[in-house]
Queue: 2 jobs
Job 1
Amino acid sequence: MTSRDRKLDKFLEAVLNDESLPQGRLDDPEDVAALRAAIELRALREGADVPSDEFLDEVRRRMIESENAPAPDPGVSRRALLRGGIAAAGVAAAGVAGAALDHAVLRPGNPELASQSELAPDNGEWVPVVASSSLGPGRVHRFVTSGAVGFVSEKDGVPFAVSGACTHLGCLLQSNAQGTRLDCPCHNTAFSNDGKVMFSQLPTSPGPLPRIRARHRDGNVEVFVPRQEA
Amino acid sequence: MNDGTPGACPEGQAEAEDAEPAAARPEEAASPPLRAVDQDAYVDWDEIYSDNATRLYRLMYSKVGNRSDAEDLTAEVFLAALRPLRTSASRREVRAYLAATAQTVLAGFWRRRLGREVTTIDLVAAVRAMDDPQPSPDAPERAKRLLEALPDNYRRVLELRFLESRSIKDTAREMDVTVANAKVLQHRALRLAANSTAGEPT
């Protein structure tokens, strides 16, 4: 058995023994795919994915304890808490794409709710996403990096980029056919290319899209996004 | 017919529309607003939990393949969602919120554990699976297809080990090979299975 096999075996054994996966690294994409296949196979077993009553009761008990703890701000209405929660989920989902956003700007009652935040990762890098010549009036370009997804267009003659995840629940936005709007596929909500909410079916309008820094460099448009992990 | 000008609607036509019998608008007759509201709301957190805990656990299990991590992640999602999400939200909002939270929680888990995301949660598919009262996630279907496509000895080693939970010794004996060979066979089979489904959504 090769050392590569032994590495993979450690994870497979955990899956086979129904144990927590160990900390470690899998470098080969084939091995990552093999582990994924192993996980899928285990989930195929009859009754494998049914939670135990003990576990369900335990989480229920912890939730009751947690709910009885003092609320962070008793003055905030239930509806406002709901709004804040959903906005936070949008942030959380954006976090998957590596966006390090400030939760505070989306907290209910915060006067900055409607202002546009900037996606400014602690550990970021400039990544070229499109040739500068491809930008121009009425043109919008979608980009995906390892840490973010977004749209870049031109505003007042300079490149302007925004996050491509809806601030409501994090669904990935799509540019409409005319390139004039970023539509959310989940709920009837649309943003302008510079991130402002154009319309929304939601009772409370979601926040504007976080801005991503963009610049022209060496004939390309570059965006400042979370650095790719080695 | 009006003249096509927005807002121009001759008196007579407006009256004709008002007089239209209700039966001609089945979409209104079929869903009385009160019933829809009742069905759409949860009574309290306990109901949210009872209705969604098993669905969420299944989703997590299909993404990590073991009970221990699936339990931890499911608990993490509910405890994270409890405070911000209030019960006045609609069922759909609650499930969308839980799915979005689950997506983030799973991504964080993989980054901490392996430094890369082995599996991910697709929000649209997750909400669809959670809306379905009898969830049948796509993953098992894929796993079935993935086994059927394999050569006999590869399929057999995966069946014995992953579906029947047989030990490696048992598996080797059953297949009449050495333990070392059984392990190699198992790895090759998984890699081949993974290749044959490459490009499918996870």
Job 2
Amino acid sequence: MTSAALNVLRSAMADATDSVDTNWALLFACWLLVTGASLGSLFFSEVMELPPCTLCWYQRIFMFPLPIVLFMGLFPFDSKAIRYALPLAIAGWAVAAYHLLLHVGVIPESVSPCSQGVSCKTKYLDLLGFVSIPLLSLLAFSTVVALLIILRKRS
Amino acid sequence: MKKNQLAILGAAALLIVFAVGGYIYKQQRAEKTQAMAKQTESPLSRAYAQTLGPPDAKVVIVEFFDPGCETCRMFAGPVKSLMDSYPGKVRLVKRYAPFHHGADKVVQILEAARLQGKYWETLELLFEGQHRWADHHNPNPDMVWQLVGSLGLDMERLRRDVNDPKILDIVAQDVADAQALGVHKTPGFFVNGKTMSSFGLEQLQALVAAEVQAQYGR
């Protein structure tokens, strides 16, 4: 047991001091993005104290595991991480897409599951007149899904 | 660059942005609310609000509260004795953040009772009977009408006044101000525009003591 664990650790350490190749860089970019998105979401709720609505919570549920799963895939590089991260990212993307459609009014609020507590239509952030929190979320999930699909094709 | 260096650098950069951004945001918000406290009309100071204590007191506690909130009830007594320990130096401003089910209606009744000069009596009664009308499993704001019956108010006038547009405006303005000030939980306290670093009676006492010290010296 101990020697097996040590071997894993040793190979991870050896890999960590390797120089960067393209696949690793792509996965690292993915990790930076999801970590930034997770911290950004925490910034909205913990620093700005904006209460997250139900749909925001579902997106957080799919976003928050990604920094950890992807980090484990970085040291040592393990393309299996893509297999575990991609379903989470796609599920998060679907919720974000639904949220954005609700937010801009394509889906009427009566269909919304957020009748109690914080409304998912509450507009907290409005940069340049169109950048909202659901839009940022959808952008983040879209980029992660795209990067992971590219990585899957490459490796 | 090696992988591990890159990862450490990336993680550090993200965390630094988060921490510095958070610090700047909090700092700016604190400056904004402290500036608001000095103005005569701002989300923190509204001329219409019910107050307790001398108008020239230099330490002003603004409390956003909900008559249905248990913690607000528990703070009522201690805040009163806190004011009594600095006679003539502290003023309390009561503002509304009716987050509980039906609490906005109860606030309207309180404001209508205020028109008959019975604000504090009514508030005390609302807190006393809180477990009955603001039960989380079975809220029943209509019960408040029976409760206030014992105060000797002109009930006919009270029923008329609760829907007075002026009262509705006050409640709407307070709700909007609470939102603007980031009050999402009750009671929300501001002492000369400053907030507690963490929530608690001791922290409030310390904040008031510090402000009395700053405004009046020893």
